[in-house]
Specification:
The chain is an alpha+beta fold. It has seven helices and three strands; from the N terminus they run αβαααββααα. The protein has helices at 2-10, 15-22, 26-40, 42-48, 69-78, 81-84, 87-96; strands at residues 12-14, 49-55, 61-68. A hairpin with a 5-residue loop joins β2 and β3 (61-68). The longest helix is centred in the middle third of the chain and has 15 residues, at 26-40. It is globular. It starts with a helix and ends with a helix.
Length: 97
């Protein structure tokens, strides 16, 4: 629930945070984001998914994305009904209202 409060406060969520909430491996979230960017077109896709990075436990730079609320909803729409029924969709919708 803390991640959802963070989304409400910041208006963004990282692919790492999305991975944690959905239970999907981060590499799969990255693949999903890249696929969404490809489908939306680079210019439009990068407006909602900003490329970024984090430093892992081995002190190596690793890719991640920062998604705005539209990006979080875009990803949520492609996941299973179980994932979509999580509080994430409800919380994001309340932020947009």
């Amino acid at each position: 629930m803390k991640e959802l409060q963070l989304l409400e406060t910041k208006g963004t969520m990282t692919s790492l945070e999305i991975s944690e909430i959905t239970g999907k491996e981060h590499k799969n979230i990255l693949a999903d984001v890249r696929d969404e960017i490809s489908k939306l077109g680079t210019e439009r896709g990068q407006l909602i998914f900003q490329p970024s990075y984090y430093i892992n436990e081995q002190n190596k730079k690793q890719p991640m994305f920062v998604a705005n609320i539209q990006g979080v909803l875009q990803l949520g729409a492609r996941y299973s009904a179980d994932v979509r029924s999580e509080p994430l969709t409800t919380e994001v919708a309340s932020v947009l209202a």
